[in-house]
Amino acid sequence: MRYLTAGESHGKQLTTIIEGIPSNMPLVKEDINASLLRRQKGHGRGKRMQIEKDLADITSGVRHGYTLGSPIALVIHNDDFKHWTDIMGDDPIADDQKIRRAVSRPRPGHADLNGALKYGHRDMRNVLERSSARETAARVAAGAVAKTLLKQLGIEVVGYVKEIAGIRAKDNPSLTMKERFDMQEASPVRTLDKTVEKQMMEAIDQAKKDGDSIGGVCEVYVEGMPAGVGSYVHYDRKLDGRIAGSVASINAFKGVEFGIGFEAARKNGSEVHDEIAWNELGGYYRKTNRLGGFEGGMTTGMPIVVRGVMKPIPTLYKPLQSVDIETKEPFHASIERSDSCAVPAASVVMEHVVAFELARTLLEQFPNDQFSKLQKAVADYREEIRCF
Ligand SMILES: Cc1cc2nc3c(=O)[nH]c(=O)nc-3n(C[C@H](O)[C@H](O)[C@H](O)COP(=O)(O)O)c2cc1C
Ligand SMILES: C=C(O[C@@H]1CC(C(=O)O)=C[C@@H](OP(=O)(O)O)[C@H]1O)C(=O)O
Q1: Whose CA is nearest to atom 30 of ligand 1?
Q2: Residues 6+ apart with CB under 8 A from 166
Q3: Does any ligand 1 atom lie closer than 6 A to the CB of residue 313?
Q4: What pLDDT sits at residue 351?
Q5: Which residues pair with 258 in a beta bridge?
Q6: pTM of the prediction?
Q7: Protein residue whose Cα sits closest to atom 19 of ligand 2
């Protein structure tokens, strides 16, 4: 199972193609659209989100509410394109027009300069349009299909905000999956800790007032994954490694940790590892989950707990200095619009990229062309490990 996305931020549309979803799995566009809508919300988003109404159209691979086993294509239109037709249209334009419109001022913290150097683009719009986090809408669409598959296998995934600008939400490991989902949905900053919500919003408002931006930490929590998914035999089959790679690939994400994460560096082994226990009903389990659901690149059967760090948004109203690639003169960029904090939206993106890696790895471990056979294979495996 894999996916590709295409599309520029202010181009006509985003396209996602997913390959490898088994046939006869129930899938309707409402499942995808609910996820897309969640990604658009959150305190701190800029004006662009008021323009877009992200809705996916399933253009192939699904018929009458069931997958066909063929590639699934999803399309999300950019409503903003109508304001950008002269800049983003596909009709050729005269060279003098091209030069006049070219973006020659790279923004620190963005892909602009490195992308220009790599691809030889003197107009950095050719870089920034694709490197924009607009693309995360297409990734959420792919993840929503993965989430639909996981849900029907009894696996649920939810993302929320743990921290914004150093303001931390308290841990509450006893929350159920439903409580986690409902709480992040009800919160304007997608946090599960009501007591810090207001402070987080104030920090976002203050950053905006100061012309600055702030980052934070998102957490994804997964229940229902059986033990032994992933592998220890090769680096690229380790599921925690796959998840870490996909989280670090989200725009502006700079770090990933599982369970107690970086804290493990400061603790003794006896305070880090999770002792193994057994009972007749469920088989093996752990009394603690400090390692966040992974040992040896495989799931332990405990909830997966993974966190990702998002740096502050690089576009600042109080802009940083840069150098014009044509004149080589220093400048301070002028800004039209930007998010001041996208951590709440990014928690939804993270939820969906994690879901995709889980579904991909499950399908690799239980390869089946038909969804009912996948369900049976996973159910048989669950029973096998319960009795092991
Ligand atoms: C949901 C989301 C929204 C974002 N919105 C903005 C934005 O409005 N302005 C901006 O400068 N960067 C924004 N970013 C971050 C940039 O896309 C990102 O920093 C840039 O592509 C460079 O990639 P890197 O930070 O991973 O190196 C956003 C990221 C995410 C995940
Ligand atoms: C469009 C989205 O996020 C965009 C990500 C982004 C960036 O530089 O990454 C910059 C902003 O876009 P614009 O330059 O059009 O205002 C955000 O709005 C989205 O999340 O759908």
Answers
A1: 133
A2: none
A3: yes
A4: 98
A5: 306
A6: 0.98
A7: 134
